[in-house]
Amino acid sequence: MAERNDFLQKVVEIKRVSKKTEGGNRLSFTCLAVVGDGQGQVGAALCRAPDVYSAVRKASRKAREKMIRVPLVGEHQTIPHRIELRRGAVHVLLKPAPPGTGLIIGGAMRAVAEAAGIKNLVGKNLGTRNKKNTVDATLKALQLLNQPNKQRRRRVKKKD
Questions:
Q1: pLDDT digits 0-9 by tens, 4-56
Q2: Whole-number Å distance between alpha carbons of 99 and 80
Q3: Same structural domain for residues 77 and 39?
Q4: Residue whose C-alpha is closest to residue 10's, from 92, 112, 106
Q5: Domain count of the chain?
Q6: What is the pTM of this model?
Q7: CA nearest to 45, candidates 125, 114, 120, 139
Q8: How crowded is residue 3: how many other Cβ atoms within 10 Å of its Cβ?
């Protein structure tokens, strides 16, 4: 099976895990990968395999299958509006930024933003530092973003 190489791939975390069996410990590796096209599509997956290379390939393939669309605004490619999301112990805050700001965001959230093709964004992880949960919450927040015109219409309807 041929793999497409036009996607941006970021490995967020690799962990060595072991399973207790009758014959001793069975080692394997987990890989948290984020994949995006740099044009507003991004996906993430966590997979396990006996070796690192297989875990990375497996996670990348699964992430491509689970891609979501992120609305990007203008030439400076930022998000349409501010969003704050609480999901379990994770508390994610994402705010649009003016052109030239860049990505002022750290860790696992940065990998998601870069893969999605977001150029200007300010973000903060206010909750747990668990990378898997942070990536999931960031993806959920980006998925909940509305197109700019839809957001404007919603505001007008609420004022009436």
A1: 568 999 999 999 999 999 989 999 999 999 999 999 999 999 999 999 999 99
A2: 13
A3: no
A4: 112
A5: 2
A6: 0.85
A7: 139
A8: 9
